[in-house]
Amino acid sequence: MPRPWRTCPVVVIDGRWTHNVTSPSPRRTVQYLIEVDGLVDARWAEWFDGQDVEILPTRSDPRHTTLIAHLVDQAALPTLLARVTGLNLTVTSVRPAPEGSEDQAGREPTALRPPSVRRQEIPMSLDASASRALSRKALRVGVTAFLVLSAAFFIPAGTLAYWQAWLYMGTILIPMVFVVRYLLRHAPELLDRRLRLREKEPTQIGVQTIGIFFLLLAFLVPGLDHRWGWSSVPVGIVIAADLLVLLGYGLIVRVFMENEYASRTVEVVEGQRVVTTGLYAIVRHPMYVGVTIFYLASPVALGSWWALLPAAFIVPMLMVRIVNEEQVLQRDLPGYPEYRQRVRYRLVPGVW
Prior knowledge:
Layout lengths: L6 E7 L2 E5 L9 E8 L14 E6 L6 E8 L5 H9 L4 E7 L21 E6 L1 H33 L5 H24 L1 H7 L7 H27 L6 H24 L27 H16 L6 H5 L1 H19 L3 H7 L10
Helix pairs in contact: 2-3, 2-5, 3-4, 3-6, 5-9, 6-7
């Protein structure tokens, strides 16, 4: 990894910065534009030692990055691509730079560096620090979730021999690790929004407070049920319920892929647009469909029929949340009233 305060030349173009990972070479004669899926920043500088490569993160869409490679000749391209794939990045396109951008005499290429370009020095650890902070935050949330769920399940049960709880935790936490890893690499801004818990709307604060009460009951009752033997849920039904939990979680993740503004809190951010394709063409709040399936299947997956009672109260809480959320979206999100007219149903087609 690069040293904490190592610096590199930075080019600022129209208010955006780019990293010069290595010092310019007077011999560069061929330029290639390499587009990759994923966020590449100065943390990876040492992977390009000996290569003259610039990195242009797309600030409006952090899931993609453009690399500008200044090569001596075309024969150096395979070596560079091998380094890129070594970062576990998917190369989506490789093409020569536009005509006139080659540096024939060691000057900065005019097509990629206009006369208004100015240089400055910044720490290479700038983006790396933000990424590490987000990683630590996600890790804290994950560890906290594990500890809270463990306490909610095993303390009331009075034993660790509660296989339904272990299976349930594995069903939700193992996929969560892969999803968080994906978001860290491809959509860090979305992950950051998903980790925010503090609501701004008064209605949402009330819904959150009441909802947490019923959610805790839904997770505490199964342990007591296991201890005292109130329910007898067949193994096959428990496994089927775990599959429904996984289905609900999968729908939530699918929404993440379609809507990069899917925040945990109700808000409209700058530049947000209305998503009308995919699941959003069926219902206006597909993520809450996944949430409903997730929470209603959880008590049965934990081996308890009785826990369905507090879990059922989560549904009206979600309905209140959705109504208030739509008021915010109609007020603050351009195009949402028209979308609301085209897609009639909020949660269940033909019902509501």
